[in-house]
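A quick aside before the break. I want you to see a complete sequence-to-structure record at least once, exactly as it would be stored in a machine-readable document. Don't worry about memorizing anything.
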Amino acid sequence: MASILPEELLPSLSEAIKCRELQIQQLACLTASNFPSPPNLVLHGTEATGKSLTVNALLKAIDHKSAIIRSKECITTRHLLERTLTQAQNALGDGARPIDGRCESISTFVVQLQRLLEGQKKFILVFDNIDRQREAAPTLLPALARLTEIIPNLTTIFIITYPRPHLFHKPGIPHIHFPPYTRAELLSLVSSSPLPLEAPSTSYSTPPTNTPTFSEADLNFLYPRFATAVHDSLAQPASNTLPSLHRLLTRLWPPFIAPILSNQYSPREFSKLMVRNRYLFQSEDALKENIVRPPPTQPPSLKTSIKQTLQLPTIPAQLLVTAFLVSHNAPKNDTLLFSKYSTSRRKRRGGGAVAQRTPRKQNRNAQRKITRRMLGAQVFGLERLLAVYAALFRFVEDDMDSRRGNGVAGGGRAEILTQFATLVGMRLVIRTGAGGGGRGDPLEVGGGKWKVNVGMGYVRQMARGLKFDLENYLLE
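That is the input. The structure line, written in tokens, reads:
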């Protein structure tokens, strides 16, 4: 496509609006003064793709009278029409004809706009985000699209997000698509204007002294790699637009360069900085929009990370530990492991029970290479979970008479089932079968099969918080 713009103007526009060279040339071909322009033109694309920026820069570059009306600044349809007349009158300058700015209806708006543009060569009217106009009637867009049938020297440009079918009730309108920025384009845009490699200054703080200075080459080496890491870890699945990526980089840049400013690392040691600041890319706190955001200047310690990860009340934590034990122990060993009458026998591992094994059983055990723990979590029934839980955590000598069934009283049973439902809702315990043909409450005894959904490390840390010896209740 041949460019209609002057040769010296196209490079400056391409430099100001990067990654939109094709859209600039298409828009220039349709709005150039030497060629007849189409009556209506539609620019569509998702948010933050450069539609308004491209139109604004191009209209300033070409020799045309134009006005841009932002629909998000207009509360009602009447406000939109009156603002359109005011912007058009301001664009024409002192030579504009006087008009009455009040618009009670669309017909009044057409009459006043026709009187205002009488005798003009070409006038371009841009409606930005017109598809999100508040209190807009269904006939507003078709009426604006037919303005050019009454006013021949008018060209109307509509900037919308998604071109729905029959939106304007008028065929043959040219469309220019602004696709979302690709990964390479996003990184190129944010890397073209890097943040400064210095401590953030505030009006109420004294400027730091003895701050190390860095060259522009160090910044150009560090910032693109930092932007790539932030985009791939946080921005790509959560906020894959240019403004959101820039806000995310602004939040994470000060804590990321804090070790550099304290002379712990140099800007060229990017791998060490990533290891040092890995908590920034593992947490999603930077994606949350808050009015007051204290900048994280220091990484959390291991003890703080564990405490934040294992925030469960006592009863759900005990139930989760019990679920892990019943998932990794065979039901035939429940009496040996969890009964109070077999405590002394359980502690004598490798004692008389092992000595009485026959050589045939010893050979069979020697040939077993995969332990039960390596096979993963196995399913269990709710009745077995409650029985083991009563044996481990709810067994009190003075309260034996008040407990029935599975060792849990009526009120205590309801409480435990409620806490177990909390674990199910958090996906820490998952359901793998529908007992009883899928009928009834799944939390009833015998109402399904369950399986723990957490690993050994998570449960081990939780057991330490409960002061519970987990390894003592695992056979293999």
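Two observations worth writing down. The chain has a mean pLDDT of 81. Residues 216-238 form the longest helix (23 residues). We'll return to this after the break.
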